[in-house]
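Hi L., both proteins are below.
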Amino acid sequence: MTVAVVGIGLIGGSLMVDLRKRGFADKIIGVDTNMHHQNIALLCGLVDENDTLDNAIEKSDLIILTTPVNTNCRMLPGILDKIQGTTKVVTDMGSTKASIAEVSKNHPARGRYVAVHPMAGTEYSGPLAAIGKLFDYKTAIICDKELSDNDALIKIEQMLDLLNMHKVYMNSGDHDVHVAYVSHISHITSFTLALCVLEKEHEEQNILTLAGGGFESTVRLAKSNAETWAPIFLENSKCILEVMDTYIEKMNSFRKKISEKDINGLKALMEEANKIRKILN
């Protein structure tokens, strides 16, 4: 199988590593507007060749979109135009799905598209961040599977099985609500904490000296690429704003208990939060 990966970054590069090693792809074509990324991918053996999007579509059996979510939305209708009437399949790895579902829902080739969100990643970006086994034992969410042709769905499921991913199915709207709570708010919280520290603590050495494991783990996501995450926040703004309102409400509850020196109230809030252990353990 010839696979085109559009967007040679952490997700795209890591896919390239495992799809090649595990025998899913005979040939991998990279598509990226960043010449530096193209050169790294070629030198590191992530791709067999780099090409334009149009040429890659023509040469490939499977097209995987791993660009920012707004770029995926912009490209998908044109790709569906080109693969209509063929056995080619296109999928995306974006972490929002409602917008891309909307732009593709009435396309006559909608069945050739399978919407996927792998719940995997790191705070790093670019092709040099690509690692093998990034997706192993992580969850892959397939959205609106009933809109995909059976053979297209099977091909993507086979790919996810090869990546050792646990498959979950849901519709695009539900997906965006759930990821706003479990993923997107975590990144906003991390960015916000980093901004607070950088504004109030002007001595870098103090940050380095006093930063413990808790701070490092909480602020880790603030290293994430703005080019990736700004479009996600905007594409999923309705759900994220609802989550942020809830988050601010809970933060104000803590503020109130602390200002009132209400130790029992604080303990009650924390003990309620401790219940998350039953889910995550």
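That was the first. Here is the second:
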Amino acid sequence: MENQLKLGRICEIRKNRFMISFEEREVFAVLKGSFYDAPPAALPIVGDYVSFIHNPGGDSVIQNVLERKTLLSRPDIFRMGQVQYMAANVDYCFIVTSLNEDYSPSRIARYTSIALSGGCVPVAILTKTDLCADAAEYVREVAAISDKLRVHAVSALSGEGLDALREYFADGKTICLMGSSGAGKSTLINALAGEDIMLTAEIRERDGKGRHTTTHRQMIRLDCGAFIIDTPGMREIGVALAEDGVDDTFSDIAELEARCRFSNCRHESEPGCAVKAAVASGELSAERLRLYRELGAEKPNNYAKMKEISKRAKAYKKQKSSDFSDE
């Protein structure tokens, strides 16, 4: 009977060994041989549901990875052209950013793009409001990044704003924590859980940055039934392979691009540029366009992408022509 397939979830990976959460316990497992010929995207990652043969006397053997409902990935900064798969089956991405010297709207936009590209709901958590004179201004700035981004300002020290986060911690929901070292991820979760379930580290006074307290991805089940996936602090995030996420984050600019006279418009000196016109009229802020360009510069030149922009532009012009004919 022990050779029957069991169902569990990957909660931690250490080199070639996997820890599986299974029937309120954890067991170690290795991959069956055929996995070693599989592409990287097919290998188990934290958050994956897997079928495995349970071995009570040693390592169990993972047989299959079940279909993922969401998948978080990013370009591997150490291996050009490769993808780093971060977590699977995530419902919410908590983009944790402290309101100190490490605050960066550009980094929040990058995380938002990765979350949207992976099919998750991005939630910006602005921590350490007790150290900030005007948190409301930061909230407005971050909220302007995308209409798909939810924003909360909190203080784990005073408890301010924590109650608003509890709606995300429903039974069975999975939250992935993202953010630079020292952003307060571990402190935040410890405050919400009411106990020290995650390691924390002190912030360096000279630059406001923290030491890495998470060195590998792991999934923790809270008493409320929600799951937390913690990720190592990531200061540099590429978005080259998250184009759909960038366009979702800046859907307003993507729509304006479709109205430009030229499908390859760079929004600089070209005539008939709808993006420049929107900036001139105040419909679009120059700062938002700058952020979009910054992220867009990391995307590869993609012929399929250009075809899609051209297609949308033609559809828009056709619709405008039809509207004119009906008048």
